[in-house]
Amino acid sequence: MNNLEEKxxxxxxxxxxxxxxxxxxxxxxxxxxxxxKYNQLLNFSQELSAxxxxxxxxxxxxxxxxxxxxEEARKPLTASxxxxxxxxxxxxxxxxxxxxxxxxxAGIHWSSVTLTSQIPSVSKLPEPNSFxxxxxxxxxxxxxxxxxxxxxxTYLRRKKSTKQL
Length: 165
Hints:
Blueprint: H1 3-13, H2 18-30, H3 32-50, H4 60-74, H5 83-107, H6 134-164
């Protein structure tokens, strides 16, 4: 747009100062080409103001959101699992078990092992009274009580959240 059209639009919209209104009205009265341009812009402004603005239906937003939700529901959830990580974890456990077997095999006195039905004295099991003491039992019971309270709390919270839904 040129400067004259901008001034005419401001005059039509009523956004110009009083001095500018006087100057533009004098320009419209004095120049035929400006008057034609003013009439053209005024008619266009009246046509625009007479038009009704299209409004979307009441459920437009709901329909759009449902379409998006349905489109996303069609896509299957895919979780990419890095096979190298799985293989690394498996290799760690295999190596740990192998190292444990090597350590056990190295600790056995192979010369004293006999293939009889008697258990050799080398592989005698320890007495349970040597490691099951009062502090161990109290620690075990304390752990069980705390774990039981945690499970009861989880159950009650889940039950409370299902009631609220």
